[in-house]
Amino acid sequence: MASLLNHPVSRDQAKVMNRFDITKRLVDLLHQDEAVIGGIGYTNFDLWAASSGPNGRRQQNFYMLGSMGLAVPIALGVALAQPVRKVFALEGDGSILMQLGSLSTVAARAQKNLCVVIMDNGAYQITGGQMTMTGQGADVVGIARASGLAQSAWAADEEAFAELIRLALKEDGPWLIGCRIDAGKPVDTTERDPSRIRDNFMRGLGVKG
After folding, report:
1. Mean of the pLDDT values across residues 27-54?
2. Is there a contact between 45 and 191 (Cβ–Cβ < 8 Å)?
3. pTM for the whole thing?
4. d(CA 76, CA 58)
5. Which residue segments constitute the domains of the chain, with CATH numbers given?
6. What is the CB-side half-sphere exposure of residue 38 using CA atoms within 13 A?
7. Which of 11, 14, 18, 36 has its Cβ near the most Cβ atoms within 10 Å?
8. Average model confidence (pLDDT) for the chain?
């Protein structure tokens, strides 16, 4: 990890990866009980698609259906409520730009079981591909570090992404991993049933029978 943090790649140097591919890599590295909060839009859709298996869809995922920018605050709340469970927030660049204050809150709270993954394609893709400020020079990993999140890095490629996820699973956080992603369409669309999503997630966390 020291090499990844002490000799980091920049946003421009990071490989542009496929969103579904790295989401599937994340899900495959989980140990079954980690909570994953999927922000709105295609990040959410690919989490849904990547989480279906022979035993059904994993219940520890929470799929947001609105409330742009709140994946990180919700994930922080889950991490606070269940401090022995690793919690991941998957968020897009447009969404995190709307809620940058959450990064300083995460840093100040120093929640050890939290990891934030930012999927950055420089666009509000679901609403028509309008350019975000990351497409005009803003660096979310640099912003995270300036906010106090020292363990923040761009994933240089798929192998580096997997290594960062493995470290977040076994080492104390908080972590932030930036991922350059392409503009590929999602593999599937999340089922839009808020009550069912909530109830499944609560059962997955063991707080509802």
Report:
1. 92
2. no
3. 0.94
4. 20
5. 2-204 (3.40.50.970)
6. 32
7. 36
8. 92
pLDDT at 72 over 90: yes
Q: Give the type of residue at 208.
A: K
Walk across the sheet containing 87-92 and list its strands. Answer: 61-63, 35-38, 87-92, 114-120, 175-180, 152-154
Check: CB of residue 178 under 8 Å from CB of residue 11: yes
Which comes out higher in pLDDT, residue 20 or 132?
20
3-state SS class at 152: strand
Q: What angle do CA 16, 166, 154 make, to 5 degrees?
A: 30
User: H or E segment at 87?
Assistant: strand 87-92
**Per-residue pLDDT reduced to its tens digit, 101-112:** 999 999 999 999
Numbers of helices and strands, H then E, in the chain: 9, 10
Q: What is the DSSP track for 21-72?
A: HHHHHHHHH--S--EEEEPSTHHHHHHHHHTEETTEE-TTEEE--S-TT-HH
